[in-house]
Amino acid sequence: MRRAGKLLLSWGLVAAITLGALEVVCRLLDPLGISYYPETARWLDTLDVRRPVGYRNHPGTRGTFYGAAVRINSLGLRGPEIPGKAAGEFRILLMGDSFVFGIGVSEDDTLAPRLERRLQADASPGRRVRVINMGTVSYNTEQELRQLQEVGLALQPDLVLLCYAVNDVEPVMWVFDKRSNPVTDLVQRSYAGSLLAILARNAKNAVTGGSTLNWDAYRADSPAWRGVDGALTEMNRVCRQAGIPFVVFHNFEDVPPLRTLLSAVGRREGFPVLEVFQRDDSRYAGIDPRKLVNSAMDSHPNVEGTRMWAELLRDARRGHLGAWRF
Questions:
Q1: Alpha-carbon distance 36 to 40, whole Å?
Q2: 303-326: per-residue pLDDT in tens?
Q3: Is residue 325 in some structural domain?
Q4: pLDDT at position 52, please?
Q5: Total number of domains in the chain
Q6: How far apart (Å, rounded) are the C-alpha atoms in residues 126 and 295?
Q7: Which of 34, 167, 226, 229 is at a distance of 20 to 30 A from 190, taking alpha carbons?
Q8: Is residue 65 situated within a structural domain?
Q9: Residue 108 lies in a domain
Q10: CATH code at position 80
Q11: CA-based nearest residue to 175, from 125, 136, 221, 229
């Protein structure tokens, strides 16, 4: 028993030293961009959590997250304080999750200001276009509806533009529910733990043919999709009641069920659903998509990727000038 105890202690010591060394190496080299997961844990720690209805960005937060400077204004939105609406101003609420928030890019390189600059170039003389970044990491459609009602409408928008993300079918508190397991939380905070967990997950998916996408949710009869459908319907109703056009866009060309379901809701409720795809545009068709994102682990658009999506979204607008006319 004594020899077995010493052997276990020795192996435990070896494992601890190995993991410690791997942690140091991963922090220094950031293989595959694995820092995305510990940085996500750091960012989630800053949020104001209001169970069971969700969470929001903490007003006044300042710091460097995902390698970029971040500031949160008094309304809980990324960016500067929002002034009162000026005469002649056309104001757009750009709603969504981390794609709109702008993980890994500076404030000026997020989608909202890049789109604003392009739309301003199309505006009539004397017309001021302002695009407000409403993005909040991991928000789903239900939370975006609540944000519109609690914050957005008071900003007097002339258009509500919603970016739909493939994980918007997840429950309101899904990112926090995952972290409620202390082991999962510890692994996500560790560079080495995150790397080993991702490699194990990818190996499992390769063997089983599994996917990180919740395909079962993208059925018209699934409770998850019914929740999305209801939230989109209500967002459109709220906007219509206020006389504000409502437009949805997405960029998931390779998820046919999502395209079908979103288009069906748009047709039924009478709001446009814009499909914004890179491969449909000759300017970007030959570009490796991996060069447009932050890293292999972080698929959010980098500076060049955000520039591209702003251009594509601006071009998509031209087919729906009724909602975007300024």
A1: 6
A2: 999 999 999 999 988 877 777 777
A3: no
A4: 84
A5: 1
A6: 41
A7: 167
A8: yes
A9: yes
A10: 3.40.50.1110
A11: 136
Q: Which residues contact residue 140 at a Cβ distance below 8 angstroms, ignoring those fewer than 6 apart?
A: 97, 167, 168, 169, 170, 171, 172, 174, 227, 228, 231
Instruction: Indicate whether 84 belongs to any domain.
Output: yes
**314 in Cβ contact with 118 (< 8 Å):** yes
Residues 184, 194: Cα–Cα separation, whole Å: 9
Lateral strand order in the sheet of 128-133: 128-133, 89-95, 159-163, 246-250, 273-275
Residue 52, token pair as written in the block: 């069971």
Read off the tokens for 90: 């056309």
- Residue pair 300/137 in contact (Cβ under 8 Å)? The answer is no
pLDDT tens digits, 23-36 = 999 999 999 999 99
Q: How many helices (H) and strands (E) does the chain have?
A: 12, 9
Closest CA to 72 of 115, 117, 134, 116: 134
Mean pLDDT over the full length of the chain: 92
Domain extent, residue 7, equals 2-319
Using one digit for the tens of pLDDT, what is the confidence trace for 233-257? Answer: 999 999 999 999 999 999 988 889 9
The pLDDT, as a whole number, for residue 6 is 66
Give the CB-side neighbour count of residue 249, counting CA atoms within 13 A.
21
DSSP string, 228-278: HHHHHHHHHHHHHHHT--EEEEE--TT-HHHHHHHHHHHHHHT--EEE--G
At residue 48 the predicted structure's pLDDT band, cuts being 50, 70 and 90, is very high
Place of tokens 């007003």: 59
Identify whether the C-beta of residue 144 lies closer than 8 Å to the C-beta of residue 96.
yes
What tokens appear for 151 in the block?
């914050």
Are 189 and 157 contacting, i.e. CB atoms less than 8 angstroms apart? no
Question: Would you state the pLDDT for residue 163?
Answer: 97
Q: Which residues face 272 on adjacent strands?
A: none
127-150 core/surface letters (b: 16 or more CB in 10 A; e: else): eebbbbbbbbbbbbbbbbbbbbee
- Which residue reads 């995902």 in tokens? 66
**Whole-structure pTM over 0.70, yes or no?**
yes
